Fold Dynactin subunit 6.
Amino acid sequence: MGACGKLEHSLLHLLLSLGLPSNTAQPITTSTLATHRNITETCFQGSLAVPMAPKPRPSELPPAPKPVVHLAQSIVISEQASLTGNFPIRVGQHTVIHPRAKLNSLAGPITIGDFCIVSERALIAAPDQDGLEIESYVVIETNAVVEARRVGEGTTVEVGVKIGKGAVVGSNCKITPLNKIEESEIVDDSTVIYGVGQRRIDISGSRDARRKLTEKQVEALKQLIPSNRTKFMS
Ligand SMILES: *[C@@H]1O[C@H](CO)[C@@H](O)[C@H](O)[C@H]1NC(C)=O
Ligand SMILES: *[C@@H]1O[C@H](CO)[C@@H](O)[C@H](O)[C@H]1NC(C)=O
């Protein structure tokens, strides 16, 4: 007995075991069996014959929209960074954009200040048409996701941190790895978020010393990361 025959056989048993009342059930005749066979065979073959929906090849996908970009002459931007969106993206002087960092202006414009560092696989996306502003001396580490309205000067966003849509983060804050800031949240200047969401204000430490340190990091990165600004200007 073939696969279809077995299927038919078991369906028949099922019908019989349900004990359908004779006034509603069709009498089982050779012709209903034949119809049944035809249907099961068609279904069976059909299900085998339906081809898998073909996956669109990358070349068939619509290209990501290219934003208008304003990139300062002195920036370092890896060829492997990605800038997509419909709204303008501005990047200030001496800012470093690592390979595989993503800047997405689909929802609104993005402005990044001077001496910022945007690390590998960090994602920076404007929350809405009012845009996202990252002030100067901001360091955004690997895998961070920033959808804030604003990130204040001198703030460090460490590995894997998520800043929700429209949040406002003050100046000189430090958000330690994997912490999360909720949508529309406001974080005061000089806040340190550590551990699992614990917070304190830390106004110790010199702002100038921190700036100098960031400038040194930027200088070092300029030697390390091959830059291709022209790729994004066309
Ligand atoms: C079943 O299919 C065959 C050929 O595919 C056809 O000749 C026959 O009439 C069909 N039988 C019924 C009951 O539909
Ligand atoms: C920069 O990118 C452009 C466009 O992709 C390319 O033609 C050019 O060769 C690249 N320049 C360098 C120095 O890699």
The chain has a mean pLDDT of 85. The chain is about 25% helix and 25% strand.
